[in-house]
Design the sequence.
RNA sequence: GGAGAGAUGGCCGAGUCGGCUGAAGGCGCUCGCCUGCUAAGCGAGUGUGGGGGGAAACCUCCACCGAGGGUUCGAAUCCCUCUCUCUCCGCCA
């Protein structure tokens, strides 16, 4: 396979520079009060004093370096002239030698300040959009709308884990033997159902919603994880390969958003819509004892993701549309759901605004998250360096990135099993899915 | 795994013994001209980031020729390390 350094046991450490997030520095410097207030609203502790100090020092050092470099450039030119005419430039060369050393020293100082700044900036969460409701936790997320009627049963509805195991289409015991807790094993009609849903979702998004299907790598490097915001702060939530600087993707958002890393798009290309099916891998660190049964919280699950790259002015409009694209799947499957707006305190690190779609789960009698649709505005684009150029306008602008699950497939299976269960233990297949299930209208024994 | 070749601007492609090369030339693109349409033709312009000046057009400085480091007064050009790409052989889904 790949190169391997036996001495360190280290496979291909992929070097990368996240670069000096200049835009980020400028943005924070210029919007200091806003940033300060927004971070407080989020409950994020960021050392803005250290930021200001490092920023000021950086600017000082940089201007001195540039001055010296200019001097060196000019004098070097003169030396060239003198030498061409056969003269002696010994003194000038000696002089420039010390200038060169001084520059080298300053460059070291500069790198130090930039390291400090970079570290702080990478740990700074996105600022919530003005429309985000204030709040501290999940409890404070307002319900935006409720769609569909939860089904009424004339028997006590069972949990999807019981239904699935009784039908022989889910087997958590064997999955645990193969891998461990929180891994799924689908069998027969269960495996078929999972695949049917993936195809149904992809077909709907590509055929009706204008998305381009992509199938990205399931392992990504550190830079990609950093760009979308999983790193550096949330390394504990990720699975990382031993001896390789690769991570298993926790969502297709990571590889798909990074498709255009370091690119300058043209305005004509925007908006770009991608949809991707991928498995997702999450360590679920710190969730011991939560959702231990069933498909709700797994180390590995499938998801169909929606990702958009848009112009800044239209990103919120696009968010509404993306949300509707995800909702469409639930409506077609005839599942009851509601949409909540995440409050400032519950917002993810990279998001400026997020809607969660929650599907009705009869066994527990609660709505459970099945999709999360977010606008990241320019946050990820800044880190990933994704810009676009507008005709007749100088320079470049950052795109806005958005994404949402459309939907989490494992949770959709769970919802279908519970919502369409019958007293005899069989499960009805919703109309929309039948073509993908070989015409089957029932999952039975 | 073995052997070799390469990485330059939106693309193709040149860079001499290290010195006005941010980078020839071509293509593309933009604006203007011309032609009763189209094609062709002519002229000008056309990288990114950052700093300074200016109302603006624009001017000016610094950096960037895969990445990082080194040599030097001076590096796209020399040296080292890494990454990636391509070709051939082997192996493999």
Sequence:
């Amino acid at each position: 396979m790949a190169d391997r350094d036996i001495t360190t046991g280290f496979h291909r450490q992929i070097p990368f520079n996240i670069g000096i997030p200049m835009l980020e520095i400028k943005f924070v410097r210029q919007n200091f009060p806003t940033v300060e207030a927004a971070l407080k609203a989020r409950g994020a502790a960021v050392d803005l004093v250290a930021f200001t100090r490092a920023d000021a020092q950086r600017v000082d050092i940089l201007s001195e370096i540039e001055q010296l470099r200019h001097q060196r450039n000019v004098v070097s030119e003169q030396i060239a002239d003198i030498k061409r005419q056969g003269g002696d430039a010994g003194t000038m060369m000696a002089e420039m030698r010390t200038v060169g050393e001084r520059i080298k020293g300053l460059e070291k100082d500069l790198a130090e300040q930039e390291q400090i700044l970079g570290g702080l900036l990478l740990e700074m969460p996105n600022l919530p959009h003005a429309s985000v409701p204030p709040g501290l936790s999940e409890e404070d997320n307002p319900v935006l709308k409720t769609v569909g009627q939860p089904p009424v049963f004339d028997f006590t509805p069972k949990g999807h884990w019981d239904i699935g195991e009784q039908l022989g289409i889910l087997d958590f015991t064997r999955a645990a033997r193969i891998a461990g807790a929180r891994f799924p094993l689908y069998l027969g009609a269960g495996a078929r159902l999972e695949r049917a849903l993936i195809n149904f979702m992809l077909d709907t998004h590509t055929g009706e919603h204008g998305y381009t299907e992509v199938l990205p790598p399931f392992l990504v490097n550190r830079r990609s994880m950093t760009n979308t915001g999983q790193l550096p702060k949330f390394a504990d939530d990720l699975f990382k390969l031993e001896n390789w600087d690769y991570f298993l993707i926790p969502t297709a958002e990571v590889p798909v958003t990074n498709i255009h890393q370091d690119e300058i798009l043209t305005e004509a290309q925007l908006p770009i819509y991608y949809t991707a099916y991928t498995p997702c891998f999450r360590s679920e660190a710190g969730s011991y004892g939560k959702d231990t049964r069933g498909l709700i919280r797994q180390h590995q699950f499938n998801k169909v993701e929606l990702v958009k790259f848009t112009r800044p002015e239209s990103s919120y409009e696009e968010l509404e549309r993306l949300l509707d694209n995800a909702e469409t799947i639930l409506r077609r499957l005839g599942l009851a759901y509601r949409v909540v707006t995440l409050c400032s305190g519950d917002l993810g690190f990279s998001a400026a605004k997020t809607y969660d779609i929650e599907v009705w789960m009869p066994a527990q009698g609660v709505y459970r998250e099945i999709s999360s649709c977010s606008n990241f505005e320019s946050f990820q684009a800044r880190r990933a360096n994704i810009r676009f150029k507008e005709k007749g306008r100088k320079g470049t602008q950052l795109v806005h990135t958005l994404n949402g699950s459309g939907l989490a497939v494992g949770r959709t299976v769970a919802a279908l099993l519970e919502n369409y269960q019958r007293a005899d233990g069989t499960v009805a297949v919703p109309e929309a899915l039948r073509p993908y299930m070989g015409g089957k209208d029932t999952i039975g024994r």
Observations:
- The two ends of chain A are 44 Å apart (CA to CA).
